[in-house]
Amino acid sequence: MTTTPETTTTRPVRFGQKMGYGLGAIAYALPYQVLASFLLFFVTAILQVPPILAGAVIAVSVFWDAITDPWIGSISDRTVSARFGRRHQYLLLGGVGTALGSLWLWSIQPVGGAIGTVLLVLAAVLFTKTMNTFYGAPYYALGGSMSSDYDVRSSLQGYRAAFHVVGMILAIVGIQILLFPSTAEFPRGQLNPAAYPKIGIAVAVITLIIAIIAYFMIPKDFGDSTEGKAPRLWTQIKGALKNKSFRAILIVIFLIETTFQITIAIGTHVNTFTYHLNGPQMGILGLALLGMSVLSQPLWVFLSKRFEKRTVLVMGMVVGLIGFVGMPWTHVWFGWLPLDAPSSLWTLAAFSMLAGIGNGAFMSIPFSMVADSADSGQLATDRRQEGLYFGLYTFSYKLGIAFSVFLGGVLLDVIGFNGALTEQTAATSFQLAMVPSWLLVAISPFIVWAALRYRIDRATQSDVLAQIRAKKS
Question: Which CATH number fits the domain that encloses residue 58?
Answer without folding.
Answer: 1.20.1250.20
